[in-house]
Each structure stands twice: as structure tokens, then as C-alpha cells.
# Entry
Amino acid sequence: MSENRRLTLKLAAMAAGSFAFGFALVPLYDVFCEIAGIGSRANLERAAVVAEAPDADRRVVVEFTSSVPDGGAWTLLPAVSSMEVEPGRLYEAHYVATNLAGRPATGQAVPSIAPARANRHFRKTECFCFTPQAFEADERRELRVRFVVDRELPAGIDRLTLSYAFYDASRAGAG
# Structure
């Protein structure tokens, strides 16, 4: 077999493997989200049920923070720095995002919860992080997140931090 033919077969195998890996990413992402406790449909359905029975005897402080790690031309700031919530009750918080790029751009928020062991007990029923956010040049917008802290949150946890890293998705797609 000629060297060119071997190289062609290897390249074709790599292309097929890459294509198969691309298809496998969607179910792998779903598994990751399920393990991490973020964004799964089961968690959203469970959050809707939990929201019907709040624990009026317990209070948890939820702190809100944000960052723009890639140095993008954005600001993302929480409307309030914290709120006191009852586990099992549905709440709403807001962040204010501004596109400073001087051109239309798309931002994507990536959430995280601290402490990590509380992650599966924090349910977002609606979140600007679920989809990329398209902005016009210099547009400023209020973004909403609706959430429930599970009644099953371990007793030793009385403070959570919801943090968003906001990335310029339009730059990532162009590169």
C-alpha cells in the first residue's frame, strides 16, 4: 500500500472519529449537567414541585457575584449583592449586562454555585444563562434568573453564592 493511501486512510479515520465525537458531545454534556446538578429537565421539574412547599423556619443567604474573565467588552453586575431566602420558595434576581464593544455582540453566561456541595440543591427554573444573549452596540439590559433553594439543602449550609462568568460568545465563534 502506498504511503499516500495510508495517509489518506488515517486522515479519513480521524475525520470520522472527530465527527463521531461531535455527536457524542451532546449526551456527554447532558450527563455532565446531570452530575453537576445544572440545567437538566429533571431538576427543573423537581424545582417546580419544591417551590410549592417552602420551609418557613429556615433562612439561607444567597450572594450574587459576576465576572468577565476573557477581558471582553462587557459589564455584568448583580442588581443586589445578596438576598435572604426560604428553602422551597421560588425567587427572582436580576443582573444588568452592558455591551461595551461598540458593535452588536453575543454574550454567554456560565453559572457556578458555591459551596460546590450545594450545587444540586440550587435549581434555576429560568435563567439568562440557558441561551446566548444577543446585544446591539452599547445596549444595556436587565437579565433575570428565577431559582429555588431545595428544602433538602444540608443543615450546615446557610450561605450560597451564585456567580456568573460572562463570555463574549461572538468573539469565540469568530476565532
Summary: The chain has a mean pLDDT of 84. The helical segments are 3-36, 41-50, 169-174. The longest helix spans residues 3-36. The longest strand covers residues 90-99.
